From TrEMBL:
Stretches assigned to the Cytochrome b5 heme-binding domain: 53-127
Keyword Cytoplasm appears in the UniProt entry: no
Listed name of the protein: Cytochrome b5
InterPro entries tied to this protein: Cyt_B5-like_heme/steroid-bd, Cyt_B5-like_heme/steroid_sf, Cytochrome_b5
Gene3D superfamilies named among the record's database cross-references: Cytochrome b5-like heme/steroid binding domain
Pfam family, one: Cyt-b5
Entry GO MF terms: heme binding; metal ion binding
PANTHER family assigned: CYTOCHROME B5, CYTOCHROME B5 A
Keyword line: Heme, Iron, Metal-binding
GO cellular component, one term: membrane
Length: 149
């Protein structure tokens, strides 16, 4: 079976049903203040493929998710779980639910062996968007922030 490069329509529909309006709106709305499109600053910097960049803004993650990629963020690292979604031991539902939020808690609840599998899918790190900051994602520990903000 060929590796899947993005979520199929059925999985997207399932993801939207799971993450839809549960928490007051889609994740893109929370990141981009009512608009699901990524901000212009991030759009100009982004590469065409999920695997072509190592630095991701919150807007990049939202756009990749909207394009059908199962992109997760945990401890400031960005992971592409798209090809793993069908092989997840609990099925696709946990990953589909995870597309609505930061995934640090999900990462931490996994065993050391499972965290090793996450690392095989690591594609980059989250960086601050000039407009939206880190959005809903927990910034990496190495990100110094102003004490006044």
């Amino acid at each position: 079976m060929a590796a899947r490069t993005s979520l199929d329509e059925e999985q997207r529909a399932a993801a939207m049903a799971v993450i839809g309006d549960e928490e007051g709106g889609m994740v893109g709305e929370r990141v981009a203040s009512g608009a699901t499109a990524a901000c212009a600053a991030c759009r100009e910097k982004s590469a065409t493929s999920v695997r072509e960049r190592s630095e991701w803004t919150a807007c990049d993650v939202v756009r990749a998710r909207e394009s059908g990629n199962a992109v997760l963020v945990a401890h400031g690292s960005v992971y592409d779980a798209t090809e793993f979604i069908e092989r997840h031991p609990s099925g696709p539902a946990p990953i589909l639910r995870a597309l609505a939020r930061d995934n640090t808690e999900d990462f931490d609840m996994h065993s050391a062996r499972a965290r090793g599998l996450w690392e095989k899918h690591r594609i980059g790190r989250i960086v601050r968007c000039e407009i939206h900051g880190f959005g809903e994602f927990i910034p990496p520990e190495s990100s110094a922030s102003c004490a006044l903000m």
